[in-house]
Design a protein that fits this description.
Blueprint lengths: L18 H6 L2 E2 L8 E2 L4 H10 L5 H13 L1 H26 L6 H15 L2 E6 L2 E6 L11 H12 L7 E3 L8 E3 L12 H17 L2
Antiparallel strand pairs: 1-2, 3-4, 5-6
Length: about 210
């Protein structure tokens, strides 16, 4: 079911340090088929992610939900694009974290999404100042959530910050994050979850050795 008929109760984790990494982390246990948990199962989940990430003002989030309920085909199309946008950056940044070559097809996919996003940027004047805003022509409104994610992926890929991309050291996690620790020694996406769990596991193994 890829419409906006249900709203996600899942609380998305913002521990990635970059919007595109948080988006890539919307799957848990990605490479463990029996435990894999998909947190983007519908367009409603996509709006929930954007809402929790503060990508949208509440009125726009409500508008997108209403629009998706009226336009099921459009919601399905936007949702399918969101999964492609999630997987290509995940593969690219996972490769960077592992010191591997980034697949050219994934770079091209990020490029394609970023070019579309740039077409929806405009300068706007607000309160005597100027700033960039996102602009929709109406027919592509349901894609609105994808544009800042694509922009984030392209900016991270082309920035020096990509050297700080890490993949969680827990064997059952695979989430990505930016390591801004002082000596670049952060091993876990979240110390409270994966870090403590791995410490407890090592303690158990030592106690029963």
């Amino acid at each position: 079911m890829h419409t906006a008929k249900r709203q996600s109760g899942y609380q998305f984790d913002p521990s990635g340090g970059a919007l595109c990494l948080d988006f890539a982390n919307t799957v848990s246990h990605r490479h463990l088929p029996q435990r894999r948990a998909e947190h983007l199962g519908s367009y409603a989940d996509l709006v929930a992610f954007a809402d929790q990430s503060r990508l949208l003002p509440p009125k726009l989030a409500a508008s997108l939900r209403a629009r998706a309920n009226r336009d099921h085909a459009g919601a399905r199309s936007a949702f399918r694009k969101s999964i492609v946008l999630r997987e290509s950056p995940y593969r690219a940044f996972s490769a960077i974290a592992a010191g591997r070559h980034v697949p050219p097809a994934d770079v091209q996919q990020i490029n394609d999404f970023a070019l579309v996003a740039l077409q929806h940027r405009k300068l706007a004047q607000r309160d005597g100042d100027y700033r960039w805003e996102w602009q929709s022509n109406g027919s592509d409104l349901l894609d609105r959530i994808l544009w800042p994610v694509a922009k984030s992926a392209a900016e991270l890929l082309t920035s020096e910050a990509r050297a700080a991309i890490r993949e969680c050291g827990a064997p059952d996690c695979e989430w990505l994050f930016l390591d801004h620790s002082r000596n670049r020694s952060r091993r876990w996406c979240d110390m409270k979850s994966c870090g403590n769990r791995q410490k407890a596991r090592r303690h158990y193994q030592r106690a029963h050795a």
